[in-house]
Structure formats: C-alpha cells, structure tokens
Amino acid sequence: MQFEEKTIQRQSIFKGHIFEVAVDDVELPDGGLAKRELIFHKGAVCVLALTPEGKLILVKQYRKAIERLSIEIPAGKLEIGEAGSEEAAALRELEEETGYTTENLTLLYDFYSAIGFCNERLRLYLADDLVRVENPRPKDADEFIELMEVSLEEALSLIASGDICDAKTIMAIQALQLLRK
Predict the structure, then answer these.
(1) CA dist., res. 143 & res. 135, Å (int)
(2) What is the pLDDT of residue 79?
(3) Domains in the chain: how many in total?
C-alpha cells in the first residue's frame, strides 16, 4: 500500500526565531483530501551528563508552555549554523548550563519529539568523564536555571512522583538504566 501524503498547497501561518507553523492541504493515499497543521523546528540536542561520582546533572527551570517548574537534562535548540555540528552544540549546551565539558561524548539516540505535527529532531548524547570549565560560557540571558545532581534511584523517584515529566529526560534516564544493566 502507498502511504505517502502529497502536499497540494502549504500556507505559512507564523515564522518565528525557533519554529515555523504551516497548514498543508494534502492528498491522501486513497485520493481523499485533508489538512495537516505542522510545526517546523531547526532541531535540538540534549545531554545525559554524569559526574565522576555517577550522579546525573539535571536542570530545574520554569517552562511557560506548561506553566510550571520542570526538571530536565541539559538541552537546547540548534543555533544558526550548527546543523551538522550537533556534537559541538551539545558541548556548548553542556558548558552553558552546567559549567562542565567532556572529551567523551557518545550519541545514544537520534529521535523526533512529536512526529504527529512537528519535525523537531533531537540528538541525545551521553557525557561522562566531565571536567569543570574554569570560565564557562554564560547562560542565555533569558535562562534562569538551578542545577541538581541526583542518583539514578533519585531520578527514577522524580519520574514516579511526576516531578520529571519531560519526555527527553525520561528517555535519557531509562537509557541510563539500560546502560547500567
């Protein structure tokens, strides 16, 4: 069976600094017509950062989209010119948000966040053998974060309590569980 939906027309609704919103008119495989509301994103990186003591470094910050505090792994969007340099972007985010760097960065997963309506592609890296940066890059001007260092067991408890509700963070913690088995 043919599954592809052919775009007949695209209407751009909004173009911002982080993403673009469009509505596509599509022809379905059976010849029917439908509309698809889509978000196009430049992509992002996220880092499962482990201290020399084996603790996870998490970031606590307020997320306006859910109107609450969120506990997450260090992460951020790709900046202009970083497409194709995702490892460098991951190291930049790690340093900006945690003050650490590493020479040991391993790609764990390359995945999409919400394929039903968004093309945001994330790369999840494992960073261990962390080294403190003497003068780390500054955080983004609009970024207010607090660092947490937790054990795997504490991280699992934060998931169970709902304090960690971020998908990429849950995925990273579960990846760590698999790595430690």
Answers:
(1) 18
(2) 87
(3) 2
